[in-house]
Amino acid sequence: MAQEWNVTKAAAVQAEPVTLDREATIEKACSLIDEAAAVGARLIVFPELFVPTYVNASIWGKGLAEFGSPRARAAWTRLWQNSVEIPSAATERLGQAARRTETTVVMGLNEREANTRTLYNTVAIFGPDGAFLGRH
Q1: H helices, E strands: number in the chain
Q2: Of 114, 100, 90, the residue nearest 23 (C-alpha)
Q3: In the chain, which end has fewer C-beta atoms inside a 10 angstrom radius, N or C?
Q4: pTM for the full predicted model
Q5: Nearest residue to 128 via CA among 51, 48, 44, 26
């Protein structure tokens, strides 16, 4: 007798966020979750720091090289303001999208720690029932 294997269709999302706009990026992510689920994906994985943007040295390095400069402080303030707290309305919306589509969603995001100035590069995981399963 041949062994049967469970097959799960996965989607690796290759998309750009709406840079430094948490709400618009969450909206876009929910739409992409719907799109991937519609073609049968049960596991939907987003890029590192999808919400609100990926900060890399080649794009941000020169502009933020003088960390205390007014320009750099303004950029980091905007990044902070558009980062995600866990739990929050943003994570609730991602959980609702996972529940609506009965998919597992893995979301890369900038997580801000409440009452501090700390940002983390976080991977948040939502189950097919919409529950927040954890973060790394």
Answers
A1: 4, 5
A2: 90
A3: N
A4: 0.91
A5: 44
**Structural domains of the chain, with CATH:** 10-135 (3.60.110.10)
Strand partners, 106: 45, 125
pLDDT of residue 127: 98
43: pLDDT confidence band, cut at 50, 70 and 90? very high
Closest CA to 46 of 89, 110, 102, 92: 110
Once rounded to an integer, what is the mean pLDDT over residues 104-122? 94
Q: Tell me which residue of 75, 97, 76, 74 sits closest to 26, measured CA to CA.
A: 97
Q: Which helix (H) or strand (E) holds 104?
A: strand 104-112
Please confirm whether the linkage preceding 70 is cis (ω < 30° from 0). no
